[in-house]
Amino acid sequence: MSQEKPDLRLVDFVPTSQLIVPEHLVEKPRYPVIDAHNHLWTRDGRDLAEYARELLEIMDLAGVKMIVDLTNAWGDELQAHLDAYQNPYPDRFSVFACVDWGRLQTEPDFGQWAARSLADSVGRGARGLKIFKNFGLTVRDASGVLVPVDDTRLAPLWDKAGELGVPVLIHVADPVAFFEPLDRFNERYEELQRHPDWHFYGPQFPSFREILDRFAVLVERHANTTFIGAHVGCYPENLAFVSDMLDRCPNFHVDISARIAELGRQPYSARRFFLKYPDRILFGTDARPTVAEYRIHYRFLETADEYFAYDPHEPPGQGRWRIYGIDLPDDVLRRVYHDNAARLILHDQTGLARQGA
Ligand SMILES: [Zn+2]
For domain 15-348, which architecture applies? Predict the structure, then answer.
């Protein structure tokens, strides 16, 4: 007797894996971790200093030595982050500054102005510059024209970062699927349903590839400036592209924040990538710090576990797939977890190896 086809909706579908394979839950990382990509702003005007104390407890439990707080701030707001995090706990927090794109409307020489703004932030103690994804996507100049990522008017800003010896942690574009039509072929369909403001498809936006190509030009042009490309160089779907940038630009590095879902669904390519560029990859999460969130990252990097959740939520945030661990060797883990960030952000050239770890 034939059964009627059930009309199950995608949102109601929660398939449960029956796979029985070894599981290795990693409670503490093999080396002290620097989370090089996070944002420690608070909601509802919560006191930053109080949050800092709460974070230190989580960090101790999770084996996190330092969190880098990428602010969207300059001036007084930047100072508040410095005073709550980095100044009282210089070994546990680093604060990065941003620039005020709104000044493009009023400053005739925005590049020079932004360079001075960065110098002010670094003078206050900021250890780097953060560029958010609105740059190259929605930021416009005084005449209403979109400012492309490789706009030469901004050269003074990038050169100033190089001169001051602070890295530029930069996020351009977003997942490739965010630039595609929102139809049944879009692999981020559910995520874009939840966040329609993350959908950048249409004539008002540049294409994904145009943004990335200009990004590559920018990094290559400013060879004396250290760039850290957020989210696996902003193109984790195409590690060959990122590898090409790393090969051409010794000043280019990447963080892995918010992209273990992408890396963990291509475990062979991802492992080769880490083994080829052990000095160029920084650990980061871009997730509200919790012990559970950190432990998933450790499991991905340290074990060869198969087909596990990259996200504590169900269905998972970025797409309906599971990930595979990449079982990195100790000397690669040490650099990714700690030494690369220590070198680029804290100018610590020795790393853990020579400290006996
Ligand atoms: Zn972020």
Answer: Alpha-Beta Barrel (3.20)
